[in-house]
Design goal:
By secondary structure, this protein is an alpha+beta fold. The protein has a domain at about 1-30. About 35% of the residues lie in helices and about 15% in strands. Helix 4 (about 65-75) runs antiparallel to helix 6 (about 140-155) and helix 15 (about 300-310) packs across helix 19 (about 360-365). The longest helix has 21 residues, at about 320-340. The radius of gyration is 22 Å and the shape is globular.
Length: about 575
């Protein structure tokens, strides 16, 4: 009890301690207050990243510059969830021009990445871990760099690039306290009995950085340093994106991959670029919901809302069996379209406009039975460890950003001398040439990442997103319906009980995971309707780490919410 009392002294200590005490069971989760501020708002899933971003805003930086500071910092302080060896996707609203733009900074498969190559090695499926899983170029830094230059040219950005990486470099070089989340996921990933997914200590790079000399994980609160990563970030700070893609860092990465049968080349790195894309949108109850186009599953997130437009969600009542049933069934229909079509649009013409049309939304809604769960759906395969970052500045610029390495600790590969955890996003490619998402050189794979934004009168009203693979579209639907249909405040919408239709990777069948905080009679009714319900503990991070910022344009107040299921913080000024 003394520990609990000591925690509640200053705001930043409260944020750190609450996450720890919640995860060790010393306190019960209860709703945090919504953070409110007149000038700027930052939400990230790690308090140190939120703090880095808010400092940028306070020093005159804009939302884009603050997002780079947050994204670089969180790649250091939350390494099990993301890395500069991963990808990111952006929605960015420019208050000066009134335009909303999308940026796809995901990497493409290497020029040597072919189905024939993997099959010649005896594989029928791309390995989830190891050198062969690291088959796509890391896109994250290209995203930071493209956004930085856009900020300088179009958003009156004035801060130096190198300064935006200061926090990241400092935490990598001088250390940071290990979070409960990092300790937990490190322990999970050193299981020698699970050589397919979890036996990461077999990789020297992982073992030397994320385990102590006695080969045990760093414990909560211990100081954790990443010297190689600090040096890599210093090079990027000095040379920009070219320092990563065209210099010694790329050479070190490629050299180790080639020595171990990997498929990425120096040419793959040197020719990589992030691409600006036009966001997709659908109407929802008088608002306009935006998300990113393929190769992201943004179309699935929007499709769910497009289907829900045909139901009176408000009359059902929030948290009722009808409410959960309707969104789960809408998710099944949206995912069926997604799994049929989603891949790199440079390789396949995807009928996105048709799939998101009002007529198609009506047709999908008409397939749903309110009294019976659909069972003839294709098995799902949710995966992914991700971070979502939301930022709004005093000028009204807004950023919704997602950054990820796919599985926790990605491929598990950290090339010597770089500190860079390489993602395993390319392991989602299929080696079946008839699959829409089959492997081809220079192709981008199906991505679960999809940052979201809800607009009102052509201005950002709700900036929101979450980690969680298949859970991202479902949690986005939960946040939107709870705020728009039921008028929840931001924090309450995030903390309300959540669900996840799908399966976690390695599992053989779908189920409907529901937090145990849902009333028993609601669970029983969902079971009666045919849902394979699995009740899990409340506030579990299986449901992802969501965040949101709501902007009241009448008085310019920003309302921020962060998820108690993670280590995040909503900070304003």
């Amino acid at each position: 009890m003394n520990l609990v009392k000591k925690c509640f002294r200053t705001p930043i200590i409260v944020l750190v301690c609450f996450s720890f005490l919640l995860q060790v069971g010393m306190v019960q989760a209860a709703n945090r207050p919504t953070t409110m501020a007149p000038h700027g708002m930052v939400v990230t899933p790690h308090y140190l990243a939120s703090e880095a971003a808010i400092r940028v805003l306070e020093n005159g930086g804009n939302a884009a510059e603050a997002a780079i500071a947050a994204a670089s910092t969180i790649s250091v302080v939350y390494p099990h969830m993301n890395s500069i060896g991963g990808d990111n996707f952006w929605l960015i609203y420019n208050a000066k021009t009134g335009h909303l733009k999308g940026l796809n900074a995901s990497g493409r498969a290497g020029e040597k990445a072919t189905i024939e190559y993997y099959k010649s090695l005896g594989y029928s499926k791309i390995p989830a871990r190891g050198y062969l899983a690291a088959n796509t170029v890391p896109g994250a830094i290209s995203g930071w760099w493209e956004i930085y230059n856009y900020s300088r040219n179009s958003m009156n950005g004035k801060l130096k690039w190198s300064g935006l990486l200061n926090s990241a470099i400092d935490y990598a070089e001088n250390g940071l306290p290990v979070t409960p989340s990092q300790e937990f996921w490190t322990k999970v990933n050193i299981n020698p009995n699970d050589t397919q997914f979890r036996d990461l200590q077999r990789f020297e790079g992982f073992r030397s950085i994320y385990l102590k000399q006695d080969q045990t994980p760093y414990r909560v609160g211990e100081l954790f340093k990443q010297a190689d990563l600090a040096n890599t970030l210093k090079i990027v700070a000095q040379q920009g994106a070219d320092g990563f893609y065209k210099g010694q860092i790329a050479q070190k990465i490629v050299s180790e991959l080639e020595a171990n049968g990997g498929v990425l080349t120096l040419s793959d790195f040197a020719t990589h670029k992030a691409d600006w894309v036009d966001p997709l949108s659908v109407d929802y109850r008088g608002y306009k919901a935006y998300n990113l186009p393929p190769n992201t599953q943004g179309m699935a997130s929007l499709s769910i809302l497009n289907i829900l437009n045909n139901y009176d969600i408000k009359s059902m009542g929030e948290g009722t069996a009808d409410y959960y049933h309707t969104i789960v069934e809408a998710t099944k229909q949206a995912f069926a379209d997604r799994d049929k079509w989603l891949t790199d649009p440079a390789f396949v013409k995807i009928p996105v406009n048709e799939l998101l049309s009002k007529e198609h939304g009506i047709a999908l809604a008409n397939r749903m039975d309110m009294q019976k769960a659909a069972t003839d759906v294709k098995p799902l395969d949710p995966k992914g460890d991700t971070v979502w970052i939301g930022i709004v500045d005093k000028e009204g610029n807004a950023v919704s950003l997602i950054q990820s390495i796919y599985h926790d600790y990605g491929s598990g590969i950290i090339p010597k001398g770089t500190g860079v955890i390489l993602q395993n996003r390319g392991s989602f490619f299929s080696l079946d040439s008839s699959n829409i998402n089959h492997l081809e050189p220079h192709k981008r794979t199906f991505h679960t990442l999809n940052p979201a934004m809800l607009m009102k009168d052509n201005k950002p009203y709700l900036v929101y997103g979450t980690m969680g693979g298949e859970g991202q579209p479902q949690t986005q639907a939960a946040i939107v319906t709870r705020i728009v249909d039921f008028e929840f405040n931001v924090q309450d919408a995030i903390e309300a009980p959540r669900w996840l239709h799908g399966r976690t990777w390695g599992a053989s069948s779908n189920d409907l995971k529901i937090e145990g905080r849902v009333p028993q009679q609601v669970i029983e009714e969902l079971v009666r309707r045919g849902h394979p319900v699995k009740v899990i503990e409340g506030y579990t991070d299986v449901m992802g780490h969501a965040g949101a910022i709501l902007i009241n344009h009448d008085n310019n107040i920003k309302y921020g919410g962060a998820d108690p299921r993670g280590d995040g913080a909503a900070l304003g000024y």
